[in-house]
Each structure stands twice: as structure tokens, then as C-alpha cells.
Write a structure and sequence with these properties.
With about 250 residues, this protein is an alpha+beta fold. An eight-stranded antiparallel β-sheet has the order 3-2-1-6-5-4-7-8, sandwiched between helices. Strand 7 and strand 8 form a beta hairpin. The longest helix is centred in the first third of the chain and has 22 residues. It is globular.
Length: about 250
């Protein structure tokens, strides 16, 4: 599993979940119905992930037939929060950026009052492999009224009829149309200029002492920047950071 996806999975699954089973069942039933209705109305795919139990419910419309996925039955349960069968049909760089955005969204949604959380979503344009077509993906995180953590994630997929050929992702408030974050703008400033400069030197094989001398800063400052980079990108070492930064076009 890639570092970003692994990090996101750990944060989603290792929350302090509620023990109120009655509320959980009601909430699950409500969003299952929403997912099923979406798949029928939009001919799309809806995936409701139960984060507490690490499983997902899949509702497939005609989109699944076009992509030749989820063909065993109309409604499926899988023992995972990831729709890997669908991800295999998508440009892997787009899947990576989708996960980066979802990780940012997960951190943000916990700061939103419960009654407003369902107004916010992640939206991404995902390019289909070996095709001129793309998908639009929307994802919502949900909590129960008495608990601050995220217990359900609802992903909705349908064809993108505008046929744009680039990845695009954003976090938006659907209640008023406000774009909270947009990846093309956010990614350019996700790392500071100095952090990008240091990461580029690390990629070139330079050690902290050499970087400090080249930038006329102390080794302690370099090491602090290195730590900030790892924390921002949520990776375990600078090799992973360099690989991810190159994929994202940050260096």
C-alpha cells in the first residue's frame, strides 16, 4: 500500500469510535439508502465505507457495466474501505492526488460542527486509463450526533461529461458553493519555497551539512525543515517525500 493511502487508512480506522450501536445502525441504514438511490438515479457507483468495521457496501449502476467492474451482483459487501477494483481503472497519479486531498479533508472535517459536516465534500476529476473519458468523484464524511470522529465515508462516481483531460480536485461547501481548497492552487503552496528547495537538494543527494552551507542556514534549521516536510506530507522518510513530491509536481 502506498504511503499516503496507508497513512489515510490508519487515521480513518484507528479512531476512537462510538459504542452506540443503535445510532450507528440508523445512520448506516440512512446512508445506504442514499447510496442505492444515487446509483439508480445517476447510473453511477456509490460506495459507503464503514470505518469502524473496515468494510464497504457497493451500489452499482450502469457505470460499473461500462467499466466492467463489480459484476458479481448489484449490491456487494467487501472487507475493505478501498474500492481497489475501481482504482485499477483510474490513472494512478489521480488516485494518489485523490488520497492526498482526502487526508486533508479528514483533518479539516473534524473542525466542523456536526450539524454542518454533511455540507462539505471532496470532489475530484479522475482520468480513466486508456480512455479519453474521466469520472467525477465526490466524497462525504459522516459522524453520529454524539461523536466527533468520522464513522462513515460515502463515495459517489459518475461520468464527467465535460471531457477535461487534466486532474482537478477540491474541497467545497455544497450549501453555498464555496471552494475551500483547490488542489492546483493548494499543491503549489503545500510546501513552502524553502521546503521545496531543501527537498530538491535532498533528492540530489546532499546531506544536511551541505544544504546548510549552500543556503547559509544552520544544520538545526535544515533538520527542522526536514521534519516539517515529513509531517506535512505524512511520509516516514525523505526518500518517500521526494518520490511523492515528484509525482505531485512540487519539485
Amino acid at each position: 500500500m502506498k504511503p499516503i493511502q496507508s497513512n489515510l487508512q490508519n487515521q480513518l480506522l484507528q479512531q476512537d469510535f462510538s459504542e452506540n450501536q443503535e445510532i450507528e445502525k440508523l445512520q448506516l441504514k440512512h446512508w445506504q439508502k442514499m447510496g442505492q438511490d444515487f446509483a439508480q438515479l445517476e447510473s453511477g457507483i456509490a460506495i459507503l465505507s464503514d470505518l469502524k468495521n473496515n468494510k464497504s457496501y457497493i451500489y452499482s449502476g450502469k457505470l460499473a457495466d461500462e467499466l466492467q467492474i463489480f459484476q458479481n451482483k448489484d449490491i456487494q459487501e467487501i472487507e475493505s474501505i478501498w474500492e481497489d477494483e475501481l482504482f485499477e481503472k483510474i490513472n494512478p497519479d489521480d488516485v494518489l492526488q485523490k488520497h492526498v486531498l482526502e487526508l486533508q479533508f479528514f483533518q479539516m472535517i473534524k473542525t466542523i460542527p456536526f450539524e454542518k459536516r454533511s455540507d462539505f465534500c471532496v470532489m475530484s476529476r479522475l482520468r480513466i486509463l486508456n480512455s479519453a473519458q474521466s469520472l467525477i468523484h465526490k466524497m462525504f464524511y459522516f459522524s453520529n450526533p454524539k461523536h466527533k470522529n468520522v464513522e462513515l465515508a460515502l463515495c459517489l462516481y459518475h461520468f464527467d461529461f465535460f471531457q477535461n483531460q487534466s486532474y482537478l480536485g477540491m474541497i467545497s461547501d455544497t450549501s453555498n458553493g464555496t471552494i475551500i481548497y483547490q488542489t492546483e492552487a493548494e499543491n503549489s503552496t503545500f510546501l513552502s519555497v524553502r521546503e521545496k528547495e531543501i527537498l530538491k537538494m535532498i533528492q540530489e543527494g546532499k546531506k544536511s551539512k551541505e544544504i546548510a552551507e549552500n543556503l547559509f542556514i544552520s544544520i538545526n534549521t535544515v533538520n527542522r525543515h526536514r521534519q516539517n516536510i515529513l509531517e506535512k506530507m505524512r511520509v516516514s522518510n525523505t526518500t518517500e517525500a521526494c518520490t511523492l513530491a515528484m509525482k505531485m509536481g512540487w519539485i
